[in-house]
Write a structure and sequence with these properties.
single chain; mainly alpha
Amino acid sequence: MNEAITMALFIASFVAIIFLIANRKNFGIAMIIGSLLLSIANVNKIGEVFLNTITDFRVIALMIIVVLIKMLATILEDSGLIKNLITGMEKKLSSRGMLIAIPSILGLLPVPGGALLSAPIVYEQGKKVGMSSEKMMVVNLWYRHIGFLVFPLSTSLILISELSNINIYKLIILQSPIFLLSFFVGYVFIYKYKNNKMEGNDSGNLKGLIPIILPISIAIPLSFVISIYASYLIALPAGIIAAVLMSKKKISFFKGASLSLALAIFGIMFFKNIIIAMGIPRILPEYLNFLQPIILIPLLSFFIGIITAHNLAAVGILYPMFSSIMNEQLVIILFISSFMGYLISPLHLCIAVTYEYFKPKFAGFYRLILPPSLLILIATIIIYGILV
């Protein structure tokens, strides 16, 4: 098929996916529609690629893993274990410590709009130290999300590890400098406030942390003996069982199971395989050779992160486009750039729900969140760009 037609269909599919996601349509269906649009001029490939994708063990395992993560997050929240964990932490940490710890701990729960879970506590602690509503919202949003740069149960990190065939723990190690820099940058927002000790004793109950760390503590050593997929497929059910058994409420083991999330993963992998089948990785570099990858990838990734407000979507859309030129450093630049775009996107659900809670001046909020976000973006380009 003519390469110009292939590229035109690629652009059309890309625009269609972004439009559908930006309008809150089902993410998996949006990816499948984009895949079908891309392959419209060569429909003979659709059936073969679909069959190869749906029968691929790695795709099936990835679908199960992200559903298990969502189930664990939902059970931890509904069982009251997270609430007990927070109560225990309040008796041990200062107001400043709570401002960092609470959104960080609750950030381990990858649920849409999850920043709202920590907002009431951040608001309470922020008022105690005289923090503005704009700063409270920034701190809550920042620490809720930056852990996903190195969190082994981050669905976006798992996805890019699968797409790039780079071990997830190697990615975590490589991205740790940016995580630490992000942690420090966030700390600048609150370091000047007094370190007032919370009232209470040191007998707080932190057992709610067990089902959070159990999957990680099992998966990491297992991954060196068996595959990453098998280790997660063992560790996540163990965490779910622990959470259900520790709950004082009657909780279903299948609480939080999400077919739409499984469909999203299938859609991403189907889109990736269609792109490969249509020869896009071979054709695309010829059309973008006027821009260096070190410039093109972060700018496009940041932009796509903003307009999709979905890091999983951005990774799923972008990586297949540049797969033929990617190395470890460019993978990290793509991931972090799209992540920072997603973090500050006005369409980001966490911004929408916490804006209603904190009620800051919107311009004031963006005056605070943009500088650190751009600083991390530039630092990523400089640090990893040198190695490209």
